[in-house]
Amino acid sequence: MPPYLQKLDEALFHFINKALTNFLCDAIFPAFNTAAPFIPILAIMLAWLAYNHSRRLWLLALALLAGITLGDTLVFNPLKDLIARPRPAATSMEVRSLVSGPAGGNSFPSSHTANAFAAAAILGAVFPARRKLFLAIAAIIGFSRIYVGVHYPSDVAGSAILGWLYGIAFLFVARRLWSKISPSLPQPGKLIAPTLLHSPWLPWLALGLIQLTRLAWAGTVDLDVPPEAARLWCVATDAKGFTFASLWFTCFGSSPLSLWAIPWTLQTLWLAIAGGFAWKYGGRSAIWTLVLLSLILPLVSQLSFLGSPGQVFADSDWTTTRYTQTHILYAVVACPLWIFAAFQFRSHRLASSVTLIAWYLAICFPSWPWWIPAFASTGTLVHMAVEIGKRFTRLADHDLSWWRAAMVLFGFYGALATAAVYQPFFLRKLNISVLPRNSIQYAQIGWRECATQHRLYAFDYNFKIGLDPVVWTDDEQSRDHLRYLTKTRALNAPQLDSLNMQACRYDIRCRADIGPSCPGPKVGDYYLQEIYYGQLQPRLFFIPRSEWLISSSEFSFEQLGNYVEVFRKGEPIRQFRFYRVVPPKKR
């Protein structure tokens, strides 16, 4: 951009960002930065569409979803990375920012503005009489991006043109494709299940493929092993005699994938048993519904946590009590089950009673593994699959309008909840802090990165000459993970061989190990402290996992080297600080 245009752009930006400020815009415009306020509105609109069953409006909703998703993923964000224009706050200190991370990312194009104008183009073609209204809303969204301090006026203007042209192009392509495929589609008002769905073995194959896909995901993404599975490995290693864990690791080894396979194998067996009952009472439609529930009901799809909900919250941003956290978690991950059990109590009294009692007890005892309420809810899950299956082939009927609305809301809930657990970065990007930061992907994150940097093996000469150092960690989960990593050498770090690690044994302990046979920390031991990055939008703060040792007056601590920071997907996740326990300093 020529210098004079750049100066004009900056002058106009500062005029909008500073001179036009008022309390009303300060309260409203930051809401456009996040999708959280619009999610309930979107859910209500989808339920209304399902209730009225308008084929034309459903096609419009699908076109909007496809158009914005494809445009944001394949056009606008790649262009942003390619052009890499810095945001205003990255080049100037005189920016009034109303949202978090004003200097992060790139400035052109503005995804919010481009998506808004693309949606306006699609909606305006379907409702020509309201085209000006849609354009006005898109313009307000674009203006808000300048007002909150994250885009220049030229970014917004260029993005508006880009989004409008993309929306027109998408409509042209979509209409051409629809004209070719629409004659082969079933008539509106009829829901015809494919012949393939009538195969008696296909639901079981689908269930197996879902579980194998989850295992493949766990084996390919950058995850640490499940906390409870690491504990099972430590028990099997220390135990003498035959146990389930020792048999498992003898047969399948102790790789991270093997540890992930333990909970999912148990989950698969449980779902197969539930599927047998669903097949008996509801036939193929019920078993297919159970397969669907296994995907979108988090209490079922996230049975991968062998441990208690407290493990999920161990590193969370929340400052509430463990009981409150457990209550909220169970309310979120099994909400449809509890609702179904309550409303179907008269027709399924035994199953509903067991489900609701299990929920109550799980809240009262947060240390219980969460497979217990899941297993206790099996009866309700089967009844739910049967009842939904009965209506599945008739969802287009007029008398099932409320069922259609409920099913759409259930699917919407499942999509959000699944994204929260499997891909928490999705919700972090939307600035939704309803669920804690921790999840299947964030639980115990960072140990492998810490260990592979071999900082753990370089405290001092004791590690190199083969002595047996004692390393203290903050709790049992940290201890089990560190034992697993060091004893299995599952670090993928060949450079560690030069340190002759086979000659060195690691006595890794935590506070829970202190007892008659373990008197506690002493001078000469080591302490590995964990610091977490907490984020309650827009504030970022630091949370020590525990200060039980570092705050002791019996010792002093000598920090060894600099701290190690761990990042995932560009976000700071954890920080490790290494100390040697030394005699207390004289006062």
Protein traits:
587 residues; flat; 3 domains; 7 strands; Vanadium-containing Chloroperoxidase, domain 1; alpha/beta
Question: What does this protein look like?
Answer:
Helices cover 56% and strands 7% of the residues. It is α/β, with parallel strands linked by helices. Strands 1, 2, 3, 4, 5, 6 and 7 form a 7-stranded mixed beta sheet that branches. It is flat and about 80 Å long.
Query: Tell me about the biggest sheet?
Result: 7 strands, mixed
Helical run tally = 24
- How large is the radius of gyration? 28 Å
What general form does the structure show?
Answer: flat
Distance between the termini: 63 Å
Number of domains: 3
Q: What is the strand content?
A: 5-15%
Summarize the model shown:
Helices cover 56% and strands 7% of the residues. With 587 residues, the chain is an alpha/beta fold. A hairpin with a 2-residue loop joins β3 and β4 (539-544).
